[in-house]
Design goal:
Elements lengths: L1 H15 L6 E8 L2 H10 L7 E2 L2 E2 L1 H19 L8 E10 L2 E9 L5 E10 L6 H8 L11 H17 L6 E10 L4 E9 L5 E8 L6 H4 L13 H13 L3 E8 L8 E10 L3 E10 L3 E13 L4 E10 L2 E11 L6 E13 L3 E15 L4 E16 L2 E19 L8 E11 L9 E14 L3 E13 L43 E12 L4 E13 L8 E10 L6 E9 L6 E7 L4
Parallel strand pairs: 1-5, 6-8, 9-11
Antiparallel strand pairs: 2-3, 4-5, 7-8, 10-11, 12-13, 13-14, 14-15, 15-16, 16-17, 17-18, 18-19, 19-20, 20-21, 21-22, 22-23, 23-24, 24-25, 25-26, 26-27
Helix pairs in contact: 4-5
Amino acid sequence: MMRFLFIFLILFWLHALPCFGDSLQLDIKADSPELQEILQAAIVIPQSLSRGKNLNRHWLRHYQKQLPELISSSLEPYGYFHSLAEIKLEYPSVDQYLLQVNVITGKPVIISTLQLELSGPGKQLPELQQTLKNFPLKKGEILRQDFYEQGKSLLLQEAIKLGFLDADFLIHQIHVYRQKHRAEIVLQLNTGHRYRFGETTFTGNSNYPDRFLNRYLSYRTGNNFSQQQINQTQINLFNSDLFKSVRVYPDRTHATENLMPVKIELQPSPRRQLRPGVGYGTDTGTRFSLRYRELNLFHLGHELDGDLLIAEKKQSLVTTYIIPDLNRLDSQIQLRAGFDREESDSYLSRELFTEGEYQRAINRNLLASVFLRLTQEYSKVADETNRSQMLLPGIRLQWRQMDNLIMPRYGQQGNIEIKGAHTTLLSDTSLLQLSAQSTVLTPLPHDFSLMIRLRGGTTWHDDSFQDLPASLRFFAGGDRSVRGYAYQSLGPKDENGQVIGGKHLLVANLEIEKKVTTKWGGAIFYDIGNAFDSLSEYELEQGAGIGIRRYTTIGPIRVDLARQIGNRSPRWRIHLSMGFGW
């Protein structure tokens, strides 16, 4: 007897031991493809069933018995309460186990009653009524508890978004009659009273005056509370680039019966910022830039910017003082003073200037401004020198709409500027000048994109052309003009064949780019344009070529190989630039 008991225990122990190298697979098939995908995602082999790579057969039998209940509980939220599961354990090979599960989902539960109601002061609001109308479940459909929860959530979110912060469900019931295969849904949302915006409190050590910060509020005290306006206010403050962190939220602890105060926590950016930069472009050569920014001058929200550029062919120093409009977020006054020096193959220009500009947004994508610019310029074009003083009032319109500022896939941008001068108003010559530029980027199939850029300008000037300083003459050629020609090397010439610039400009660029990988791409392009003096007689130069694009976090690096077209002795020229070619 003892011997028999000992052998039995040994055999039981050996049977319970894990089988080394065993593997288990689970194959679930259902009579509905949609439910089969749901089951395959929901039913997984538990980790406790194996130890490393070894299968515990004792726990396998236990898991096999649990599977029908697991499958049933996985299907019930989707309206199937009478599923049947047939489970077989198969052995495809010596060290492999296969759990074959065939599921018959059965007859679904159908919604026989769907009672959706609103109560409270906001029950007649069109927004809430429309959300109720769009409830994801309808009478006669299969009961889906995930759709039910989704509909509840959307309804509650819409009520809160409209200012009913105390909205709650008085009734939210699902009655399932399994044997009759039907369900009844009763859902009633009470909106509660509607809040209005109360006082807004700013916290943090920003030292910005409240009147300045109030510019960023997308609401006013007394307006109906709206979560969307709270979110927009946070976006406005974050986009100002004045704060490291922004948090905007309703202050429920100090709410009254109808007023909901708002608290805004701000962590300001450093008051003084210095940002250096280096780069290279064929038009400018090697360049070094330095930007100084000082925020919240005199604790009024004013800003002082200083921009220094040192390049082989261009140097500039510009100081800008920005005065925000305390009544509007989208307008400001900018006062500038600076020095520009530029030297190209065609001219040398040195300019001192001061400028005042008032900017105001017309809409989300359109910015308008009026300006007054006083300049004193020394320029040398060909063998002629010019010293001039100009007082130039003008108007600018700028628009931009794109999906990404650094690496856009589609978008458009442009600007129009008109300015003039008269000898009776502190100017050495009279003129009226119009210039415009527009770029359109369109995505094409198979990771191709098409960019079209147009640039033009015209000048009405009756005095001697020699009276125009170099900065008011038009030239063409360069990285973002007619590639294949040097920067500002195209235009009318004097009797000695030296380029002196023109009164008018017309340039067009067509470029097709193909993104090959996430970091590399290629392009082909065609450019045409020139500067000229007569609108009836002009000659347009052409260039075409291929390019390589290296995509980086600060924009693409562009290397273009361009060849002149229609030239008796055509030349090849390499153009290198960084950033998108707006």
